[in-house]
Amino acid sequence: MKTHITYLLAALAILQSCTASLEVAPRGYLTSGTFYQNETDAKAALIGAYSILQDVYRNEHILTPNEICADNAVPFLTGGADRVAIWRYSHNTSNLYPGQIWSSAYQGIQYSNVLIDRLPGVSMNEQQKHVFTAEAKFLRALHYFNLVRFFGDVPLVKNETTSLEDVEIPRSPVADVYQFIEEDLLEAAATLPPRHADNDKGRATSVAAMALLAKVYLTRAGNTPNSPYWAQAASKAKEVIDLNMYDLWEDYADVFALANRGGKESIFEVQFITDIKGNGFTTGFAPRGAPIVPNNGFGIFRVTKSLFDSYGADDKRKSVTFLTSYVHPGTGQTVQLSVDDPDPTVAVSFWKLADPTVRVGLNGGTSWPYLRYAELLLIYAEALNEAHNGPTAEAYQALNQVRNRAGLEDLSNLDKEAFNDAIMLERRLELCFEGHRWFDLVRRDRLIETVKAENSFDRNAPITEHHKRFPIPFREIEANKKLEQNAGY
Q1: What's phi and psi for 280, nearest 5 deg?
Q2: Residue 392 contacts by C-beta under 8 Å, 6 or more apart in sequence?
Q3: Whether the predicted model's global pTM rises above the 0.90 cut
Q4: Over the stretch 16-34, which tens digit does the pLDDT of each residue have?
Q5: Quick one: residue 270, left, alpha or beta (phi over 0 = left, psi -120 to 50 = alpha)?
């Protein structure tokens, strides 16, 4: 944490050039003595807090570990060494990915804490002040939720960091972190409006807080039969469903269409602007060297055969999710892609978040779907199955809504375990490439068996129990002497 203190302290005086829709230009700064004077200053700071999510989700911070540390993706073995290392479960404390996750989360937490602590002294409408505070708490909860799932116990920083003396604090127990997350989300749910104006899509709402809380309860339930969190997850998900504010798009492709940003299936998303403030999904995941995107494809990882083959022949999601061929613009020939061929130039690629309109490399405009209605239905179905020791009619209805949109038939007559298996498969197929898979395998205690079974390209990962947590980055241990490393690292 001390490593990043200079950057974090800059959050004392964030000034954003921005639009009302939170689609932002790069951050700039004012001195702390002149900032936080009025509502305009406070809104600029709030947008700065949101823009951290663009930094987190535009590249690989959350996506790559969730996909390649599970069974959905394989990094190209001639690519980044840090990707290959975590895929093979050769984790070390200097790996890029734990470092990115940790530093970006605490950067976001600092931005939220600064806003929360400074807002009481700002001259502005009191109701708007409460809304801004609740949004900052929603964002803070989101960052802590990422941290606690990756690292377990983490330092619980509740207020603005103003000096080096504030930095060295020990890790707080997982239960305390989750309690703090719950408190922030409950306040956000009670304070925020259910919707914002169309030009403010992308801001947190009371409904987004409720839905995220359902996911937090689901995660806290883990793999524990009769946990009270199952019923809490089901109850909170049902609150959102009963509002009738969200629905599934009829066509799975419409979920990710540029025209549908903030649409009827989006509960909370991170928005980007094509060729201005974009993400790297299109160029980053196109086949290596493929001349179909700006700068040609980077091909940083490929699809596993086990994921690709898990889609049935009638599953409409498969053709949307993957790029399986393309027409070479120079030769006019069709290039067929493969899940088996080790050549990175002909590898099947993740494609559902690609932006076909992008003209500047790493600047696609597709939103990051942090939480959408399809996932909420699956949360509801899973939680009901556990809370009632078997699937209820409502659980089947929620699961089958997602399946039917994919062109699949209803499931019925399953026992509790078979229904759980069906939910896990549906989450994998519906939500792949959205940063959920590793989290799902860990919380349901299926990580080790699943990773050991996924041995494409001679992976043979030596995974053990301690890999259910990532290592605390070495630079953070060195900077904060009160931090203790996770067991096994």
Answers
A1: -100, 15
A2: 384, 385
A3: yes
A4: 323 222 222 223 334 445 5
A5: beta
